[in-house]
């Protein structure tokens, strides 16, 4: 409202995401973790009554979708914050495959073909970059991406790379511009040149899956 007084707050909520003045996203992560475990407890009670397909559908609708919602915002957060989200995914995998809580979770995640949280964040960022560069996403995201143009044409620089912006603070390195450029520059040239979004997503998941689980 024109002439109104803006009230400063330490925390607010926008599109379902809790934002704080320091952008730690601690409140947001706590909310996702709390709701995730709440739904997991309910789904675990239904597990003996549900076929596998229904169980997987419930897990995606009530748990995985919450872990993935706006997860690009988690890029660059401390590993301890990401680990809290990973614990929810681990618990979900144990419920789906009926695995003991003391068993190592990596084989179960691999069997389910679930990307760990860290790599799901990278996946989301790279999909946004691909869409922006190919006119499939909002124009404002494209404005954050600057194609790298070498001073002179070199065969080794024909990798469809992006300029990585420089920041003086670690907070700046959490920005979309920085995370998008560094993540995009790290993937193979052939993957960047995928002919369609569906092909890109399919090949990207395979590529990140191999990195996540050290598949040779």
Domain module count: 2
Residues in helices, as a percent range? 40-55%
- Report how far apart the termini are: 59 Å
Number of strands: 2
Mean of residue pLDDT values? 91
Give the arrangement of secondary structure elements.
Elements: E1 11-14, E2 17-20, H1 26-46, H2 52-68, H3 79-97, H4 106-112, H5 117-133, H6 139-142, H7 176-185, H8 189-192, H9 197-212
Helix pairs in contact: 1-2, 1-3, 2-3, 5-7, 5-9
Structure characterization notes:
The protein has 216 residues and is mostly helical. The chain folds into two domains: 11-114, no CATH class; 120-212, no CATH class. The chain is built from nine helices and two strands, in the order E-E-H-H-H-H-H-H-H-H-H. Strands 1-2 form a two-stranded antiparallel ribbon. A hairpin with a 2-residue loop joins strand 1 (11-14) and strand 2 (17-20). Helix 1 (26-46) packs antiparallel against helix 2 (52-68), helix 2 (52-68) packs antiparallel against helix 3 (79-97) and helix 5 packs antiparallel against helix 9 (197-212). The relative contact order is 0.10.
């Amino acid at each position: 409202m024109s002439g109104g007084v803006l009230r400063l707050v330490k925390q607010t909520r926008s599109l379902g995401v809790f934002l704080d003045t320091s952008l730690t996203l601690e409140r947001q992560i706590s909310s996702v973790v709390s709701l995730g475990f709440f739904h997991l407890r309910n789904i675990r009670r239904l597990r003996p009554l549900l076929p596998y397909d229904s169980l997987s559908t419930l897990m995606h609708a009530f748990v995985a979708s919450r872990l993935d919602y706006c997860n690009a915002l988690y890029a660059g957060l401390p590993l301890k914050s990401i680990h809290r989200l990973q614990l929810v995914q681990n618990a979900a995998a144990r419920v789906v495959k009926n695995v003991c809580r003391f068993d190592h979770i990596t084989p179960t995640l691999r069997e389910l073909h679930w990307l760990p949280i860290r790599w799901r964040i990278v996946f989301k960022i790279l999909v946004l970059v691909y869409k922006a560069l190919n006119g499939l996403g909002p124009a404002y995201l494209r404005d954050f991406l600057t194609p790298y143009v070498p001073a002179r044409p070199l065969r080794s620089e024909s990798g469809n790379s992006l300029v990585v912006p420089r920041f003086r603070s670690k907070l700046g390195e959490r920005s979309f511009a920085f995370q998008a450029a560094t993540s995009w520059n790290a993937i193979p040239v052939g993957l960047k040149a995928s002919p369609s979004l569906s092909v890109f997503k399919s090949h990207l998941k395979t590529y990140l899956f191999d990195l996540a689980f050290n598949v040779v």
